Amino acid sequence: MAATRKYGPRVLALVTGAGLLLSGCGGAKVGESQAASDGKGGCGTVNLAINPWVGYEANAAVIAYVAEKNLGCTVVKKDLKEEVAWQGFGTGEVDAIVENWGHDDLKKKYMDEQKTAVSGGVTGNKGVIGWFVPPWMAEKYPDITDWKNLNKYADLFKTSESGGKGQLLDGDPSFVTNDEALVKNLDLNFKVVYAGSEAALITAFRQAEKTKTPLLGYFYDPQWFMSEVKLVKVNLPEYTEGCDADAEKIACDYPVYDLDKIVSKKFAGSGSPAYQLIKNFTWTNDDQNLVAKYISEDKMSPEDAAAKWVNDNPGKVKAWLPSS
Amino acid sequence: MVAVSAPVTRRLPSRSYITGAVLLAWIALWVFLNGRDTLPLGGAQLTPLHTRFGEGADVIDANRDSNPVFLYFVNYIRLFIDATVTSVQALISRPSFGRPVPLAGWLGVTGVATAIAYLYGNRKVAVLTAAGFVSFGLLGLWEESMDTLALTLTAVALSLAVGIPLGVWAGLSDRFNRIVTPVLDFMQTMPTFVYLAPLTLFFLIGPASATAATMIYAIPPAIRLTAHGIRQTPPATLEAAEALGVTGGQALRKVRLPLAKQTIVVGINQTIMAALSMATIAALIDAPGLGKTVLKALQTLDVGTAFNAGLAIVIMAIVLDRVTSAASRRVEIAHRTGRSGRRRLRRVETAVTAVVAVVLVYLSYTYVWAAEFPAGADVGSYVRRGADAASGWAQETLVAYTNGLKNAITYALLNPFEALLAHSPWWLVAVVAVALALLLAGVRASITAAVGCVLLVALGLWHDSMVTLATTLVATLLVMVLGVVLGVWMGRSDRVDRILRPVLDAGQTMPAFVYLVPILGLFGATRFTAIIAAVVFAAPVSVKLVAEGIRGVPHTAVEAATAGGASTWQLISKVQLPMARAGITLAASQGLIYVLSMVVVGGLVGAGALGYDVVAGFSQYQLRGKGLAAGLAIVVLGIVLDRIMRAAAARAGGSSATR
Question: Which residue numbers delimit the ABC-type glycine betaine transport system substrate-binding domain (chain A) (predicted)?
Answer without folding.
Answer: 45-311
